[in-house]
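Sample intake sheet
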Amino acid sequence: MVTAVLSASVLLAGCSTQTSPSTSADAGTFLEQHGLSGDAVTLINELEKLGGEDRPTQFTASVRPDELLLSDGRDEVSMPLPDDQFYLSIAPYAEKTHDCYFHSLTTCQGELTEQDVHVKIVDKETGDALADETQVTNPNGFVGFWLPKDVDGTISVSHADRTAQKEFSTKDGDATCMTTLKLA
C-alpha cells in the first residue's frame, strides 16, 4: 500500500528518464524508507491510480517487461514481475500525447483523465478477447492491463464516438507504455 504521498505540486508532462543510481538497495529497506509495502504487482496497481499532487516525487517507478524498477536517485531496487504476465499501460488521446516505451508510474501523464473508455484486447493467434470492458482512465490518464506474456494482438479503444486501434506485443523487451492510440 502506498502510505506516503508528497503534496508538492509538480507538472508531469511525460515519461522521465531514470538517472543511474549509485547503489543497489535491498527492496524491503527501500520500500520502508519511502512508505511503501507489497510486491511489484501491488505497487504497480496502486501507483497507476495516482495523478497530479497525489503522485510521489521522492522516487521513480518504471515498469519493464519483467521487473518494476524503483529509484530515488541514490538507490535502485528491482522487483520481479510474474513470469507469465506482462503489464501494459494505455493512454488514448485526442489532441496531445508524449513518447514513452517503459511506463513510468510516477511521471507519465495521459490527456484523458477520469474518462470512460472501452478497451478490447484481442490475441492475434487465437482470436480470443483478453479484455473487452469499459474502464475509467485513472487521474494519470492511463488504464493498465495484466496480459499473458508472449502474445501478439490488437488493442481497440473507443471514447465519445471516437476510436483508435493499434497492434501490440507482450514479449521480452516490448513496450509497457502505449501512448500512440489517437482517437479519431
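Comment: The chain has two domains: 23-80, 85-178. The two ends are 37 Å apart (CA to CA).
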